[in-house]
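Training component of the fellowship. As part of building independent skills, the fellow (R.M.) carried out the full modelling exercise for a liganded target. The chosen ligand was FE2/S2 (inorganic) cluster. The inputs are recorded below so that the supervisory panel can assess the work.
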Amino acid sequence: MTTTIFVCVSCRRGSGGNDESFDRPGPALVQAIESRLRDDGVAVTAVDCLAVCKRPCTVALCAADKWTYLIGDIDPDSHADEIVAAALSFAASDNGIVPWRERPPSFRKGVIARVPPANHKEMQ
Ligand code: FES
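Fellow's submitted model of the complex:
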C-alpha cells in the first residue's frame, strides 16, 4: 500500500510584512522530499491547495484505509527529513496513527487535523 505525501505548492509564505512580499515554499519541499525518498512505498505529490492556506507550507499524509494527517508550518530547508521520517512511520503503522514518540517536532507542532478513513467504525 502506497503512502502519499501531498504537498501544497500554492501556499504563499509572507516574508516582508506586506501582501506583496512572499514566496511559495511548496515546490522546494516537493523536491527536497523527492530527493530523500527511496523505494519504500512512499511517494510525494504536489497539490494546489489543502485549505489551510494560513499555515504554509501544508502537507497531508494519506493512504488507503488509514487515518489522514494534515500538517502545517513545514519549511523545505529544515523539515524535509522530519516529514519523510514521519511518512515512513505512518507507512509502517497499521492504521495511520503515528505513535507520539515517533513524531518529529515539526509534526507535533504543526499537526492541524487527523481524519479517519472512509470505512472507519469506532469500537463501542
Ligand atoms: S494554498 Fe496551501 S493550503 Fe491553501
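The panel noted the following from the submitted structure. The mean pLDDT is 93. The longest strand covers residues 3-8.
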